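Can anyone check this?
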Amino acid sequence: MATIDAFFKLMNEQGASDLHLYAGQPPALRIRGEIERVKYKVLDNDTLRSMLYEITPEEKVKVFEESGDVDFGYEIPGLARYRANFFMQKNGVGAAFREIPSTIATVEQLGLPPVVAQLASLPRGLIIVTGPTGSGKSTTLAAITDEANRSRKDHIITIEDPIEFVHKSQGCIVNQREIGTHTKSFSASLRGALREDPDIILVGEMRDLETISLAIEAASTGHLVMSTLHTTSAMQTVDRIIEVFPAHQQAQIRSTLADGVRAIIAQVLFKRIDRPGRCAALEILIATPAVRNLIREGKTHQIASMIQTGKKYGMQLLDEAIMQIYNKGWISADDAYAKANDKSMFRPLLKNPPTDFTEA
């Protein structure tokens, strides 16, 4: 057993989502969204480096030594998988680990709206799950992928950095590829995937222009493509995708995206106050013909009102979803206010409303 495995077992016992190990500091865990220090000695650089390298593949050690950053997956059989990120910092080496549950939770178990599960049955198009780091995007995508895996008879290819949730072939054949281990880059793997007879392609993250372009192309040519972005609303997601492209290409991409997109989910994660655990609030945009016309015509500022009138399709605004879970007594007013897009909606709920400089 590797020395560091003891920390992973502690993570599991404490219900932590992340483990932080930095030279010059004691270890820390993120529990229900908050950092809590572990009662342990301050880690010195040499001891921590030795501890980390014990579980690191040789080729990843080389990448880290050359670049100062590396990502990879680590698994303890019977416990969990972990997404590892090593980096260099002022006091030496640093590492952050995110626990990936060995069991994939269903849409129902996650408490997500039923329309999210229905997305798994789409024959083609682009599904984008967005939100800040640590908001549960990978968990939501895994639930949709698992639903497709159980209910369809197709070929699923996932392209991830690193592989997070492990999908065993059920109704579908599932092939999972890791950047740096099985393929060079998202764009190279996505280009290759189009020749591998896929029905569903999961792209861990749309990081650059080429990957975004290939994902939109794949979605427009008969494949169901799922991916993530770091944006906070459906409207912002559409604008971010289009703004990645040079000005002379944006009109064409706007039209192609309008034809290919099927759904955008923007989510945030909250610490529950009624019991241990966390819950998500989702903004859901379903690409109806009217929504596609708005995207095509560059009227993305009207998307919010389209979501408000599209409840029969399963659409909902993020702030409405936050208010729903607040009214259930699951989250605090302060947390709701902090993560809402329209803060004026939640300001009356606060006992001591702050002077919010962000609204100036």
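Reply from J.R.: I decoded it. Residues 34 and 271 are 9 Å apart (CA to CA).
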